UniProtKB/TrEMBL annotation:
Residue span of region Disordered: 1-41, 466-486
Keyword Cell division included in the entry's annotation: no
Basic and acidic residues bias locations: 7-17, 466-483
Record-stated family: Belongs to the glycosyl hydrolase 5 (cellulase A) family.
GO cellular component: cell surface; cytoplasm; extracellular region
Biased composition (Polar residues): 18-38
GO BP terms: cell wall organization; glucan catabolic process
GO molecular function: glucan endo-1,6-beta-glucosidase activity
Keywords from the UniProt entry: Cell wall biogenesis/degradation, Glycosidase, Hydrolase
Domain Glycoside hydrolase family positions: 138-383
Name of the protein this chain belongs to: Glucan 1,3-beta-glucosidase
Amino acid sequence: MKKFLNKAKDSYKEFQDNQHQSGDGGASQQPMAQQPNQPVDLGPPASIDVLRYRYHHGTNLGSIFGISSISFSSSFYLISSHLMILILIPLLPYIKLTIPVLEKWLHGSMFPASSKGGSELDAATASLSELGLDATRSKFEQHWANAVSDSDFTWLVNEAKCTSIRLPIGYFTLGPEYCKGTPFEKVSGVYANAWAAVRALVARARSHGIGVLIDLHALPGGANGDAHSGSGTGKAEFWGSRGNVALVRKVLGAIAGEVRGGMDGVVGIQVVNEAVWGAKHMYEFYEQALETIGGVDARIPVYISDAWDLDKALKWCNGRKRGGCPVVVDTHKYYTFSEKDRAQAPQEIIARIGGELKQLDGKIGSLCERGEAQVVIGEWSCVLDGKTWSRVSPQEKNNLVTQFGRAQSAVWQQRAGGSYFWTYKMDWMDGGEWGFAEQTKKGNIPPPAYLCLPAHEVRNRLQTASERRKELGDGAKRGHEGYWDGQSPGQRFEHWRYGEGWELGYSDAMKFFCV
């Protein structure tokens, strides 16, 4: 697929009822010039298509390949090869997950007492000083190898219903060659086998049916001033630096080459995490990143940061020329850091959730008319500030946490293409309101209902879909043809294209559902 398709949110019944109202998302449909009857030959979606384009429900895995210290108090013309998402929406299963750069508040055990700060660089530097290269490299490699056990994967699939992992890494994760001329050059030997560890994790995840989003979390110079950018300078010096951009393009090209070369299971590449607000030349960098990755394999979805301005990011996406890599916008949702959040009671914050992602209004729902616009919630949690909790009695907290988590889950599943809870792994499991494990076990962040269907129910629904296919297809085609023939009597339309697209979409939807 060349674009990340807009995920319809209506059931098939709503689709059927509404199809008379518009031909391509609201724009008037014009008669098409008669062309030779040459149906497009499109095969069924491959397993990697399903892995990449289903809804992503999941979690961050905690700080594994990077460390930092953070403290928190329409109608259906054959426009694209896989428009199946407009048919059988109630049947589609989805989910995803995240692992970030090493963070001290999550994995303090990786930081020697002599660490001068809380960044990945601080941890590696202190370990080298205390233990030497061999012991430090062994320590880090064990951390990477043991980050996710087989029992973890089993729980993520069977209990949490995750279908993919978001894996934040640093530019240094690709090894010493990519550390030259950077603050990580002196500790680069620690990362000699880091990329091999990433490959191994991706392969293990894939063997469990889980995909991986590779997130370039730490950029040279820092995409923001926080320690999770890899170093503790407190500055966002990546932006505007030709040398930094050139290095990151080299890194992205290498990752894309690995994916194309057989790194099965990668659902996308995220080119930056939490870009600082108003980052200089950010969208120029995004175009360069898309050119680099697309030059290797234009089928790879590319995830970008909204830099805390979702509306602007969506406008940029809508205004781009079509073609090349699919683009997905990553936005983060927290309700614990701002003074506005702290000044409100839990009930007031929960009441705000239903209005989230309104920036998508008017920007999604018609690939033809508006272009693409897809969003994932890359980070979110059930955490509220102590000042917020002070406004209610302690006895009310558990119930309010449940309401908060479920309200967010409902909106993300309704309006976004996926969500990743922060976080799964830390030294202090199960993690409280930060913990994906704890919140999942308590039922506070339920997965989409269709992911919980038992195997026999999946088979029953597939059987029903097969039995009703002709009835639904004939009705949709008659309605489509009758509407447009009535709108433009005497005009010639290639209605067979609609029929072909409908059949393709129905088949693809069934394929997605049965995986």
